[in-house]
Design a protein that fits this description.
CATH architecture: Alpha-Beta Barrel
CATH class: Alpha Beta
Shape: globular
Structural class: alpha/beta
Strand content: 15-25%
CATH topology: TIM Barrel
Largest sheet: 8 strands, parallel, barrel
Radius of gyration: 17 Å
Number of strands: 8
Oligomer: single chain
Number of domains: 1
Number of helices: 11
Distance between the termini: 7 Å
Length: about 260
């Protein structure tokens, strides 16, 4: 059975509008030369200022928002309403470790954001993962379990099936360190088992895409993407450079050929 992949680039707080347009146009030129393949979905999360400019620039590159507020409107200076994203994005990144750690988002906040995203027709990409202290204390799996339990609280099986999960060990993000393919597979398999219990219907959890995020680059992407329960990658630094991002996309295309 052929695997399907999502290769996603999280640009974080990088790229001006001009740089964003140039990147998407340049990547589109490269991707357009590849054979048409529904099994690989390409996705970028630009900064909010670039979303309007890049949306629709490429038929093959989808866009996502890096965050959203769980309220539709109100006195929330600096926040982005789901209403403001309508027609601009397909996906919304929720619970990224930087949002959790730097901006102190709680699992309760993340749960509300997931529900808001679903109400407004966006596909949430839920980020979970352990810190270095938690891994060294042997708490990787218990951390994942707690995050999923709290983040998915109150969601129906059908709603859970519509999510994408991104496992991003915090100690591997932007550090140059990454989980080994075996460590990634162990975490992804555990996540899928949790999802099976929450969905409790045949075939539901098997079709949920679980991405790996954490210092993914061309030198390790093929080994990571070839793991049975790894369905793609959420890429930071390497997604800012067209050639590196494209190399990872090519790896997914090769693996999708089965």
């Amino acid at each position: 059975m052929k695997k399907e992949y999502i290769i996603a680039g999280n640009w974080k707080m990088y790229k001006t509008i001009k740089e964003s347009i140039e990147f998407v146009e340049g990547l589109d030129e490269k991707v357009s030369a590849l054979p048409g393949k529904e099994a690989v979905e390409i996705l970028v999360f630009p900064p909010f200022t670039s979303l309007y400019a890049v949306t629709g620039k490429s038929r093959k590159i989808k866009t996502g928002a890096q965050n959203l507020h769980f309220e539709e409107k109100g006195a929330f200076t600096g926040e982005i309403s789901p209403l403001m994203l309508a027609g601009l994005v397909d996906y919304v990144l929720i619970g990224h470790s930087e949002r959790r750690q730097i901006f102190k988002e709680t699992d309760a906040d993340i749960n509300k954001k997931i529900k808001t995203a679903l109400v407004h027709g966006f596909q949430p990409v839920l980020c979970i993962g352990e810190t270095l202290d938690e891994r060294e204390a042997g708490k990787t799996l218990s951390t994942i379990q707690t995050q999923l339990d709290q983040d998915l609280e109150g969601l129906s099986a059908e709603e859970i099936k519509s999510l994408v999960i991104a496992y991003e060990p915090v100690w591997a993000i932007g550090t140059g360190r990454n989980a080994t393919p075996q460590q990634a597979q162990e975490a992804h398999a555990f996540i899928r088992e949790i999802l099976k219990k929450k969905i409790d219907s045949p075939g539901g959890a098997e079709n949920i895409k679980i991405l790996y995020g954490g210092s993914v680059k061309p030198s390790n992407s093929s080994d990571l993407l070839s793991q049975p329960d790894v369905n793609g990658a959420l890429i930071g630094g390497a997604s800012l450079k067209i050639d590196e991002f494209f190399d990872i996309i090519q790896d997914a295309y090769k693996l999708a050929d089965g």
